[in-house]
Write a structure and sequence with these properties.
CATH superfamily: MFS general substrate transporter like domains
Transmembrane segments: 52-71, 165-186, 233-253, 273-294, 306-324, 361-387, 399-421
Subcellular location: Membrane
Main location: membrane
Helix content: over 70%
Largest sheet: none
Strand content: under 5%
Order of helices and strands: HHHHHHHHHHHHHHHH
Shape: globular
Protein name: MFS transporter
CATH architecture: Up-down Bundle
Number of strands: 0
Radius of gyration: 21 Å
GO cellular component, one term: membrane
Distance between the termini: 39 Å
CATH class: Mainly Alpha
Number of helices: 16
């Protein structure tokens, strides 16, 4: 291939990110599918389970702050490696647990390790893609979150039936080390990579304002400096209000289908697969939509906002899940909401890479992710109280109805707050 015809190695990089994110979500999804089995073995209440979820979220939040800075300092290759090793070891360690407290401890370790995935992946996309392709690239790798959730409802019940719950954690946790081999062999930043030619390198850095994303500066950007910037709070609020909804889908959706529609979680089932497959389509489609609007001439920030408003409206119908009389009606409503969430997620992540220079991007993503995890700590606490109350009253479905109503409102509220905080979004120059 001549130097005039650019290579496309950046898409191979996206494939690596896709599989890392798939494994990330596979490992965190296992406990939700094993919840009925573990509830019986360890006599968990809904509040016990919510506290285990909160332990994951608390350390995920703290880890996001830590890993954001670590990845900005160590670089994406080494930073991603450290993150994956920590979370894979923690995932396998679930098999050794003998108590509810022990589950809280290993979930905390898993949260700390998994927190490195998105700060690293978003920075990799910023390093390898011009702005007009970032939303699509982010949507593709972010769809791995849903593929992990699709694989889990098939894989985990099968392992549980053939072996036991301990092996479900061991096998899924070990997959990360397979990915690590490919990461070490095939990944490097563009300026050091031997598989890309000058044409692709120039294309990656073709943004007219690319000098605002200068990687050569050695000046350290502190969290305090970032927190006084209004654009940081836009990202913070968007993640705080919407991330907890996705956590709810991950950790409580299997239990919802089981308790409301008597779905047998010991067998592979198509219902959860459909929900998370729809979310995968939403992730890629959401990234494509804003990229398409930009190619049609719409300014970058307006394209992101327009797409996100559309996705916020698409979540609202989930409140009607309270009227579902069979599982397929609920699956349709939740699938639409899940697809809209992942489309929203692809764009809010890309907005951060549009606004902030690369040298501070992982730190900003870490701050926003921390905000989402704080919301993810508070929301499970509320969910546990609501479900225990209505379970005691013999009507747990009413509890889920309240929760779905909260889900329906969260995205539109987030969009409105983000819009009025920064009606005209501008790039940040540090």
């Amino acid at each position: 291939m001549s130097n005039n015809q650019k290579t496309n190695y950046r898409w191979i990089v996206v494939v690596l990110l896709f599989f890392a994110t798939t494994i990330n979500y596979l490992d965190r999804q296992v406990i939700g599918l094993l919840k009925p089995t573990l509830e019986k073995q360890f006599n968990w209440t809904e509040e016990d389970y919510s506290r285990i979820v909160m332990a994951f979220q608390a350390f995920y939040a703290m880890g996001l702050l830590a890993f954001g800075g670590v990845i900005d300092k160590l670089g994406t290759k080494l930073g991603y490696t450290v993150s994956l090793i920590v979370w894979s070891v923690a995932a396998m360690a679930h098999a050794l647990v003998k108590s509810t407290f022990g589950f809280g401890a290993v979930r905390a370790a898993l949260g700390a390790g998994e927190s490195g995935n998105f700060p690293a992946a978003i920075k990799v996309v910023a390093e390898w893609f011009p702005k007009r392709e970032r939303a699509l690239a982010t949507g593709i790798f972010n769809s791995g979150a849903n593929i992990g959730a699709v694989v889990a409802p098939v894989m985990v019940p099968w392992i549980l039936g053939v072996y036991n719950w301990q092996m479900a954690f061991i096998i899924t946790g070990a997959i990360g080390f397979v990915w690590l081999v490919f990461w070490v062999i095939f990944y490097e930043i563009p300026s050091r990579h031997k598989k890309i030619n000058p044409a692709e390198y120039e294309y990656i850095h073709s943004d007219a304002a690319d000098e605002t994303n200068d990687n050569t500066s050695t000046e350290k950007t502190s969290w305090l400096r970032l927190l006084v910037i209004r654009q940081t709070w836009v990202f913070f609020i968007g993640k705080f209000l919407t991330d907890p909804i996705w956590w709810f889908f991950l950790f409580w959706l299997p239990s919802y289908f089981s308790s409301t529609f008597n779905l047998d979680l010991k067998k592979p089932n198509i219902h959860l697969v459909i929900v998370y497959t729809a979310a995968s389509i939403g992730s890629i489609g959401g990234g494509y939509l804003s990229s398409w609007l930009i190619k049609r001439g719409m300014p970058i920030f307006r394209a992101r906002k327009t797409a996100m408003l559309l996705f916020a409206f698409c979540v609202i119908p989930i409140f009607a899940a309270r009227y579902a009389t069979n599982i397929w009606q609920a699956v349709a409503l939740i699938s639409l909401a899940g697809a809209a969430h992942q489309a929203w997620s692809a764009n809010i992540f890309t907005t951060a890479s549009d606004i902030f220079p690369k040298k501070a991007l992982s730190s900003v993503v870490g701050i926003g992710g921390m905000a989402g995890s704080v919301g993810g700590i508070l929301f499970p606490f509320l969910v546990g109280i609501i479900l225990d109350h209505y379970k005691a009253a013999g009507n747990i479905t009413a509890g889920y109805n309240i929760i779905f109503t909260i889900c329906a409102c969260a995205y539109l509220l987030a969009w409105l707050l983000m819009h009025f905080l920064t009606p005209k979004v501008r790039e940040v120059k540090l």
